[in-house]
Specification:
Elements (H helix, E strand, L loop, with lengths): L19 H27 L2 E6 L4 H5 L8 H8 L4 E2 L6 E11 L6 E12 L5 E8 L22 H6 L18
Antiparallel strand pairs: 1-3, 2-3, 3-4, 4-5
Length: 179
Amino acid sequence: MFAGSRRAKRGKSGVHMRKTSLINGRTVFRNAVICGVAALTLAACGEPRYAVHGYAPRSDELQRLTAGEDTTSSVRRKLGEPTIIGTFEENAWYYVSTVSEQRTYHHPEPIDRTVVRLAFSEVGVLEGVNRFGLEEGRVIDLETRTTPTYGRELTIVQQLFGNIGRFNEGGGGLFGSGN
């Protein structure tokens, strides 16, 4: 064999150079990216996110209201529209505010809730102000059962072919009117 037929690259010292330096550079970059993503993910786990929903007047705002003097229109001017007007008792207004905390992939949990209830007389004069917090709240279990339906449960095949052979007594056939 000729000495020139080999096309191996030789470094300055005469030793064969490997392509591993390029592969190691890619591996180092890939590992750096993986470590960076992992660090960002762990950093996101530590800080909770807080969200405020709704509006409940502060104590100093409620002190500006006077029972027996303020009306629905004056309360609306001072505090704004209520969050909820009572469904069964239209003379009750509710202002509701909730602060919730969410950590990474968990569901938000309420950490503070304020409910202010304003009671009005039949003629619209303020009668009383009540303030409730999260500790006065109750957990309400929603009924998840469904209303039962009576009759047979049919399979898909029974539904598709169930009416074959059923005709009107008037002899109308499949497409006739029967009269």
